[in-house]
Amino acid sequence: MPRTLSKVHKQISKKRGVIDSLHENSRDARRLRRAGSRDDRLIRHTGAVMKARQPYMERIEYFHNAVQDIDEPLNDEGLADLVNQCINRDAEELAQLQQERRKGRPPLRREEALSQRTQTEEKEFKTGFWMPDLSDEDAFLKLKHWNGEWTALSSAKFIRLVIGGEKQASSFPPKGMS
User: Residue ranges of region Disordered (predicted)?
Assistant: First the structure.
């Protein structure tokens, strides 16, 4: 039972004893309904927020795993190579799914999702790929020792990297072309 509903339930049971039956329109029944609907709204909102953050979390987790083997910050060429690896991280799975599909059959949802994500990230790389600044010593170390929490990223430094190697400062969380 979520926290607020359990709190209300506890308060009512302290007052009344065991709650076996309440009148449909009693104050206590209304309190319980309001608390339950409030918890449902909070759970739906939290789920929507987590779903919206998921692509950014996957991207940051990829960079986090990639820098574990590296000892020092990257130069501009290293950043571009790492971004290209990130964009093409699912190329093998995509090729395998395309090979397994019979001729004339429509692509699977997974295949469509992977190709769409790859295309979206390639477009983003042309205008400015949002990523942690791995050329900065402090940001590099923060990402290397990141604990996997969204809130821990607020102190890290982020950039938008363009294909030509141009870097622009960015904010966390990303908003538009910031």
Answer: 98-123
